[in-house]
Amino acid sequence: MEQTDIGQLFFVLESNADPESAKQMSAYMRNQFSFLGISTLKRRKLCKDFLRHAAKGEMDWCFVELCWERTHREFQYLGVDYLGAMKDKLAASDIPNLKRIAVTKPWWDTIDGLDRVVGHIALAYPEVNDVILAWSADKNIWLRRIAIDHQLARKERTDTALLERVILNNLGQKEFFINKAIGWSLREYSKTDPSWVRDFIARNDSGLSSLSVREASKYL
Fold first, then answer.
1. pTM of this prediction?
2. 3-class SS at 211?
3. Closest CA to 51 of 101, 86, 23, 11
4. Number of Cβ within a 10 Å radius of residue 130
5. Rounded alpha-carbon distances, angstroms, from residue 33 to 22, 40, 98, 169
6. What is the spatial distance between Cα 78 and Cα 60, in angstroms, rounded to a whole number?
7. Integer angstrom CA distances of residue 218 from 34, 168, 184, 199
């Protein structure tokens, strides 16, 4: 990827900063990150042509690293959008790179984009399931969240045996982001197989948090 193109894109984003919106966005994210103050809709409009052109080339992990090195959170969002655009060119060999960025400046906003990318790779390369299982028991809650939610939107292609093992590795948790993820994964799959989800809840009711059960039962 041409450095001039990257530099121009970064300049365009910085030129569209909105300090007032930046304060609000930072506050919403518990002031963990600095923002330029660019909405998702505007950011994607500004980056649309760049991403369309970039998607025609080869995967550029250096670009992703540059996005993660920048101070403002919009650049990490750009990195996630880029990975989404390049997901068909990613393979099992890219999982270590995804793990590295997942645990760098992590919060739900980037993790909930990276889980889809990881899930796309895992569906194409089943050997990644062993990594997913390891992540589901990792001390890092964000890797566990990716493991729990990486099958979102798979519908009938969901590997229920894997889903069950991943969730069982996370029962009895007090961490909000883990319990929310469990409920979310079950809720989404309930749209495809509500009987399976009802049975899972019944068999594991004592280990599931009330948050997980409430989320999982939304469409039951």
1. 0.95
2. helix
3. 86
4. 10
5. 10, 16, 20, 30
6. 13
7. 35, 20, 10, 15
Length of the chain, please? Answer: 220
Taken in order 15, 16, 17, 18, is the CA torsion positive or negative? positive
Give the residue among 215, 216, 214 at the shortest CA–CA distance from 193. Answer: 216
The distance from CA 78 to its chain's CA centroid, rounded to whole angstroms, is 13
**How far is the C-alpha of 75 from the C-alpha of 183, rounded, in Å?**
29
Q: Is 34 helix (H, G, I), strand (E, B) or coil?
A: strand
Task: Kindly give the confidence (pLDDT) of every residue in the chain, 220 residues in length, as a single tens digit, with 9 standing for 90 and above.
Answer: 777 799 999 999 999 999 999 999 999 999 999 999 999 999 999 999 999 999 999 999 999 999 999 999 999 999 999 999 999 999 999 999 999 999 999 999 999 999 999 999 999 999 999 999 999 999 999 999 999 999 998 999 999 999 999 999 999 999 999 999 999 999 999 999 999 999 999 999 999 999 999 999 999 9
Place of tokens 């197989």: 193
Residue range 83-122, pLDDT digits in tens: 999 999 999 999 999 999 999 999 999 999 999 999 999 9
| DSSP calls for 163-181 | HHHHHHTTTT---HHHHHH
Q: Which amino acid makes up residue 138?
A: D
CB atoms within 10 A of CB 129: 18
Helix locations, the chain, DSSP H: 3-15, 19-28, 40-54, 61-69, 73-85, 95-102, 108-124, 129-135, 141-149, 160-168, 176-190, 194-204, 210-216
